[in-house]
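To assess whether ligand presence alters the predicted conformation, the chain was also submitted together with HMH. Input:
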Amino acid sequence: MARRIPRVLSIAGSDPSGGAGIQADLKSIAAMGGYGMAAITALTAQNTQGVTGVHTPPASFLKGQLEAVSSDIVVDAVKIGMLADGEVIATVGEWLAQSRPGVVVLDPVMVATSGDRLLADDAAEALRGLLAHADLVTPNLPELGVLLDEPTAATWEDALAQGVRLAERTGASVLVKGGHLAGAECPDALVLRDDDGGALRIVEIPGERVETRNTHGTGCSLSSAMATMQARTGDWEASLRVVKEWLRGALAASDQLEVGTGHGPVHHFHHAEGTVPLAEGEFTAGLWEATAKVRAEIDALAFIAQLDAGLLPESHFAYYLAQDAQYLNGFSRALARASALAPTEEEQAFWANSAQVCLIVEAELHRTWLSAHPLPPGEGFALGPVTKAYLDHLLAASSMGSYAVLAAAVLPCYWIYAAVGEELHRRHVARSAANADAGAHPYGAWIETYADEAFAESTRRAISYTDRAGRSASAAERTAMAEAFRQSTVYERDFFDAPSKYA
Ligand SMILES: Nc1ncnc2c1ncn2[C@@H]1O[C@H](COP(=O)(O)OP(=O)(O)OP(=O)(O)O)[C@@H](O)[C@H]1O
Ligand SMILES: Cc1ncc(CO)c(N)n1
């Protein structure tokens, strides 16, 4: 019977490096939505390079673990991995005879990815005997050969034929794995025995090989994920389709982990990255970090250096101010929309107040700076191309209907302006202290308005509200927020650079 959160037991060995064995099983079971449990058959000392030791506790203690679990908990599926020796195999066989769960997946582990043995030499025969208790057996190509007492299959066709022979001989269904094949393809296939024990059916699922050395634990991960999905769906083929796609993603994302120098583990939770709980400030810190390159480009602009040195041509300053006045008008409308979408009254009031402050600052620009720095007649207040593009971007974010995305889109206007302003102001103050003449700086009075503590406080609040929205957003919404933030940061850069192009 299908179970939404299946209770899945792994009976397997421990890999302290976390990539294989019960550690991989517990991660894979959780990744597939199950509740994971583990009865440990053996302890290995291993890492991504190989196995340096195996300690097998008395089989009676494994028996104790299995009884503790099944005397209290309904086990919906079991995955059986490393069994170490004949006594362990016998213990698991006895437990299955008494307490067999509805789904039994057996991964006949014999050798680690590194080539080290994980099953006693004389135990292969005992393992063959256990196969009959399984619903699904998941050997890799060398293991398939050993179980049949045949050479390792050299081609995929040979492997499929061996899979059919193993299914016929054991009565179990067989998952034939293409991981050990050469070439660009990495297919898997199910040799399925229908419930009525009738004819065998082969379902092949093709797949591209992921170019990586990080294949430690793929077999463990596959078998425990299959046990979990089967308990959820009752359909081996549907389960393999989901699990194979997930495992491909886990292999493709494995480089992010940087675990070990040998065959590294796969990234079991690659698909859930957007759902990791974030601490306060972490989301917006990530947005800031991701735009470091664009911000470095802003710092390197001639406009900033010239403004700082007091060498910015008048016409550039006038153009900048005229565009800023128009920008503030459109920006105010975007903020009013953020207020309309805000989830709390506190945020609603903040954005509404910011929208109003923008209009006050715009009026002030006209009254003071623009009257003192008039544009050439005729050029007046024409909307420049960057100003238009930036405002169009904010308008698009406003009309999406997502508060979180709109907050991310308006944030760079606060944050970048505050950061650039703070730096300009810091340098201006340092210069004034060192040089009595600094009072003559043509843009000194303007730079001084940058030090406004009220604006710094608004910036902190805009960051904090955007962060809160990001932390409770869906993965897709977070992606849209990051894109909106990045795009606005690019427009901030282009806005500072526009006078040099269009003034
Ligand atoms: N490079 C790869 N690209 C895509 N899929 C792969 C790759 N390597 C292995 N797989 C997949 O991983 C699963 C395990 O296959 P494999 O034949 O490697 O098992 P194994 O040898 O038992 O694994 P382990 O490395 O844990 O011993 C299969 O679904 C296989 O298709
Ligand atoms: C404990 C353990 N089980 C299975 C494997 C197979 O990958 C391994 N390397 N270690």
